[in-house]
Structures are given as structure tokens and as C-alpha cells.
Amino acid sequence: MRRDAWEELSRSDFPVPDEPSLSELTAELTEMLGHADDRVREDTAVAALRTWLRRGVYDDLLPGLGDGMVAGLGSGVRERRTSSAVVLGQCIARDEATRRVPAEQVLTWGDRLVTWWLEEPEESATARGADAVAALAHHPACAGAELAVVLDVIGERAVGLERLDSVDRLAEATMAVLRRGLVPTDVVEAWLERLTDAAAYLRALYLLLSLAPDPPPDRADLVLSVIDRLRAVHPGLRTSE
Q1: pTM of the predicted model, to two decimals?
Q2: Pairwise CA distance, residues 128 & 169, whole Å
Q3: Torsion of CA 187, 188, 194, 200, to 10 degrees
Q4: What pLDDT, in 10s, does the model give residues 112-169?
Q5: Which residues contact residue 69 at a Cβ distance below 8 angstroms, ignoring those fewer than 6 apart?
Q6: Which residue, among 164, 166, 162, has the nearest Cα to 154 in the 3D structure?
Q7: d(CA 239, CA 241)
Q8: Which terminus of the chain has a smaller tally of CB atoms within 10 A, N or C?
Q9: Sign of the CA dihedral 96, 32, 64, 119?
């Protein structure tokens, strides 16, 4: 479709047009995920795919759409990689509600997602990837072993991070893992011990553990563990001998 036709759909909150076909529209939107113009990429392609996923338009096509987003993670175009990760997170979130995709396929998506996240050097990928990883952590296909891997990946992205939006969203993704209650507290504590250069992230995690609704199991123990880690990495919080 012409750009003005997409803009009209956007103004109307993306009704699904009778033509072209949904497959043709999806192919066009997928191509637009790599567009250099933010308005085309974000306001049209990502917004349309997110809206149609939320409304169930893709429920019967979810396995194929997710596979298409996984393919986009390997694109040579940075914008397509990041936008594909965002939409893949939406596919995973939708499947949490509908359970149309085999668990093994969801785990394959998750493996490709975290691999991309670890390898993507762009700062913008940290926050947007965190949202997708949070969706993965919510999904029932992820058990304790997979969630422990997600924690390790979050820890890798947290090192040296200072931007507020990034650390906040990493902390939110961590809460998605911890709320499942499937990673033993001693494993979480050992993971915290490895965070030697992530003071900003630890502060954000401390606030969420202390104040957020729907706390994870063993919140009190986790808060104390994070406080201990903050004291270790933040000189101003160390107690005097």
C-alpha cells in the first residue's frame, strides 16, 4: 500500500483492510521494520503488528509470524534487528494468552532472542530487548533452568549501564523472572555476587523489590541480598570498620 494509506490506517487505529490480503500486508510491514525512517518503522510497522497481535488477528498465524521475526534478528540492518525483537516479544506475550505455539518453538524463539540481545552492541537494544525478554520470562514454557539463563543474560547487559530507561527496564525484566518463583534464592544470590559493575541497575532493582506490587517470593531475602551487593559495589554505602 502507499504510505498515505498506511498513515490513514494509523489515524484510524489500524483496522484490518479487506485488501490487500493479510499475508501481503504482513510481508509489507515486515519489510518496513528495517526502514530508516522512525515514523515508518515505529509508528506504522511496529505499531500495526503490535495492534493486530493484541487483537488476535494473527492468532492462527502466530508460529509463522514469530519465525519471521526470529529471521529478522539476523538481519544486517540494525533497525530491523531491534524492531524484530520488539515484535517477537509481542508474539511471545500473545502466545502466553492463547497457547497456539508449541513450547519447544517458544524456547527456540527465546534462545535466538537472548543470543541477539547479548551480541547487539547498540544502546537502544538494551531497553527494547529487555521488554521482549520480560515477555519470555512470563511465558509458561520457561522453567527454572531457562529463567536462570535469562538472569545471566540480564546481568551481562547490566554491566556498566547508566541510562535510566535502560536500567529500569532491565530491572522490570528481572522482576518478571523473580515473580515466577522458579529460580532458587541461593541461585539468585550467587548471580547477584557476579554483578560487580552494575550499581545503577542494582539501585533500580532494589526500588522495585522494595516498592513494586505483586512482589516475588522471598522478597525480604532478595532485598537484603541486593543491599549487600549495593554496599559492595558502591563505596558510599560501605559500613565503616
Answers
A1: 0.93
A2: 8
A3: 180
A4: 999 999 999 888 899 999 999 999 999 999 999 999 999 999 999 998 888 899 999 9
A5: 84, 85, 87, 88, 91, 109
A6: 166
A7: 6
A8: C
A9: negative
